[in-house]
Design brief:
- By secondary structure, the chain is mainly alpha-helical.
- It has one domain (about 5-60).
- The protein is built from 2 helices and no strands.
- The chain is elongated, with a radius of gyration of 17 Å.
- The chain starts with a helix and ends with a helix.
Length: about 60
């Protein structure tokens, strides 16, 4: 896993939290929720290939 992925996830978390707070304080809770959901989906799309690689490595390990 690349260290830049961790920085990307941290950046998305910071941006989503700031935008979410701004939207909540302006009375737009629905948009704040959708922003959080979009950030979660984006991060999951980055993480899923690594999770798949982990499970396939574990499967190959126990096939012996």
């Amino acid at each position: 896993m690349d260290i830049s992925l961790i920085f990307k996830i941290a950046a998305v978390g910071i941006i989503v939290s700031v935008v979410g707070q701004i939207l909540k304080h302006s009375g737009r809770e629905e948009q704040a929720f959708l922003t959080s959901l979009a950030g979660l989906i984006l991060v999951l799309m980055w993480i899923v290939p690594y999770i798949y690689e982990l499970f396939s490595t574990i499967q190959r390990l126990f096939e012996l």
